[in-house]
Amino acid sequence: MKHLSLMLLGAAGAFLVIGPAQAADWRVIQWKDTKICQIVDMAGPFKPISSNYAVLTKKSLPTFDAAVKARGEVGAKAKCTF
What we know:
17% strand; single chain; 3 strands; alpha+beta
């Protein structure tokens, strides 16, 4: 069973490395109920499930580093709790 798990993990990793490159769409969002700000790749497979958030960055950010910088800038204005 352990070998099967390792084999599946390796196959998933190879798929991620070999798979087609996807353009990132990094955004900074703020959850409305907690005021926590988060960086999310809206082009990726893991988008927020709930619609209880507001997008703080209106334009797409090309890199995660740009999103971190933008989170610092817009987070101060939006008064993010975290």
